[in-house]
What does this fold into?
Amino acid sequence: MEILNSMDYWFWTPVLFWVGLFFWFYRVSYPTYLKKLLKKGQKWVYIPSIKGFCVPCDVIFTLLMALTSGVPAVWVLHKWTSLPWFYGFAASPVFLIVGCVVCQKAKSKAADLYKSAYFLEYRKVRYAYESKGNFRSEMDVQNQTIWSFTKKLKNAESHGRLWKYVNAMAKSKKIPPDVYAETNYANE
It folds into this structure.
């Protein structure tokens, strides 16, 4: 078993693959999760154009990672026990569960970015109406927010800057001045 003897050198390689799998779910295949949220009635969801291969690739990559992560277990059994080496692949179902958890966490993290970006746009729309003294109902503000949010994201997507734009919006801590004043005077 020459390959098992060389495992000393690339034992931690699956960890790098797990990081790559996380970023696959976080940056490429997250629109499938956004579709589920839209079906559940979340109005803030914007679904970027996706390729049809995301779901099969999610399954294939997760299965490959479960098998690849079983290889160090094979090495441990070969190196330190007298059990047959192929028993190490019994750890693969555990890694399959880990893959599903990683998928869920990465996709929900991407959805949280979109949600934060949406609420920044919501605060902007609400502030624009209230600063003019034009008070609207909550439904009108939500509809205007959804319209402007979708319009801005479609524009960013057409220019190839969707991820950068959403990330910038989500990380923005801009608060309209009136909201800031209310929070400062409420503490006195």
